[in-house]
Amino acid sequence: MLCRTASDLLWMARHIERVDNCARLIDYAHRVALLPDRLEKGRALTESWGAALSALGLEEDYARRFGRLDEHSVLQYLIFDADNPSSIYACLHAARESGRAQRGAISAEMYEDLNSSWMRVRDLDWDQLNSEGLSQFLDWVKRRSAAFRGITLGTLVRDEAYTFLQLGTFLERADNSLRLLDMYFGETRQRPEQEARSAVEYYRLSALLQAISAFETYRKIYRDTVTPARVAELLVLRADMPRSLAACAAAIHRSVESLAGGRRLEVLRQCGALASELRYARMESLLAPGTSAFLKSVMARLYAISDRIFREFMLSTDVVSA
Question: Alpha helix (H) ranges present in 158-290?
Answer without folding.
Answer: 160-181, 187-188, 199-211, 215-222, 228-236, 245-260, 266-280, 283-286
